[in-house]
Write a structure and sequence with these properties.
Layout: E1 2-7, H1 14-19, E2 22-25, E3 28-31, E4 34-37, H2 44-54, E5 59-61, H3 65-77, E6 81-86, H4 94-104, E7 111-115, H5 121-135, H6 140-150, E8 154-155, E9 157-159, H7 164-168, H8 174-183, E10 185-192, E11 195-203, H9 206-216, H10 218-221, E12 228-234, H11 238-250, E13 256-261, H12 264-270, E14 274-280
Parallel strand pairs: 1-2, 1-6, 6-7, 12-13
Antiparallel strand pairs: 3-4, 3-5, 8-14, 9-10, 9-14, 10-11, 12-14
Length: 282
């Protein structure tokens, strides 16, 4: 049997984790001198409350070697093989932690570590594809080969409501954040080759911006893999989420439109109100 493990930044809901028999290993979030496990011990709402009170963005760190070994050992003892997914190596050292765990357990012939070159449900899309193949009885090598083919086809982007959190985390200058706030600019962030970059800048209220962003994806959405599309958000307004969902539904493209909430690591850097539409291109 092939088991699928991902770090917590894949932002898959508990329902999806259970449906596809996926195992998650949490990254860590530091609020001052206190450390918490992502998705297990702290919520995005608690992170925002602390961040605003302290005018800081929390620090985040890779999964721990101890947690990784604890998850892997029973699977290997049961003679299972493992495919492990991590957030882009340019954003975290989690992939190195996973590789160290593989070495320590001397399991190089039974475990594959995949750098997703992505984040959030950009990883989650790959994780689900791997989990479906595992449930179908595909081999570890077959799964890895197909995932490598899918990786460059993942389309991961999102629009930011406020630049405050990117500024606090050092990913956006104070001047740019101030200018963006005054002009009501909302950047579209796109993940490409494992790194984040700005594709467009929208102006106006976030509800209208989000819809404009979703509609701008229409041409790409029409050539997407039809199994599923994600609406992933960090505490976005319910009405905004519903409008994007209705729009995607009106296109009659996808078998499944999944709404999922970003975990603490992604949320702490992007800030509240962020929303993305993520899918795999054909």
């Amino acid at each position: 049997m092939v088991r699928i493990i991902s770090d917590s930044t894949c932002d898959l809901s508990e329902e999806l984790v259970k449906r596809y028999n996926i195992t998650l290993i949490p990254l860590h979030i530091m609020l001052g001198d206190k450390e918490y496990r992502d998705r297990v011990e702290i919520s995005p709402e608690e992170i925002y409350e602390w961040s605003d009170a302290n005018n800081q963005t929390p620090k985040t760190s890779a999964t721990s070697l101890e947690d990784t070994l604890e998850m892997m050992k029973p699977m290997l003892d049961a003679d299972d093989e493992i495919v492990m997914f991590t957030i882009s190596e340019s954003m975290s050292t989690t992939a190195n932690v996973f590789r160290l765990a593989v070495e320590e357990l001397e399991a190089e012939d039974k475990v594959s570590v995949i750098d997703s070159a992505n984040l959030s449900t950009g990883i989650g899309l790959l994780v689900i594809e791997a989990a479906i193949m595992a449930l179908e009885g595909k081999s570890r090598r077959e799964i890895c080969a197909q995932i490598e083919a899918y990786k460059p086809k993942v389309r991961a982007s999102f629009v930011i409501d406020t630049l405050t959190y990117l500024r606090r985390g050092g990913r956006c200058s104070s001047v740019a954040a101030l200018a963006g706030g005054l002009l009501k600019l909302h950047p579209q962030i796109v993940v490409k080759d494992g790194a984040m970059g700005v594709a467009k800048k929208y102006r106006g209220r976030i509800a209208q911006v989000t819809m404009n962003y979703a509609k701008d994806l229409e041409a790409e959405l029409k050539t997407a893999k039809k199994d599923r599309v994600f609406i992933t958000h960090s505490c976005a307004q319910e009405e905004v989420i519903k409008e994007v969902y209705s729009y995607l539904e009106s296109l009659h493209i996808f078998d499944e439109i999944l709404i999922t909430k970003a975990g603490g690591v992604i949320s702490s850097h992007c800030g509240p109100g962020t929303l993305g539409v993520l899918f795999i291109s054909e």
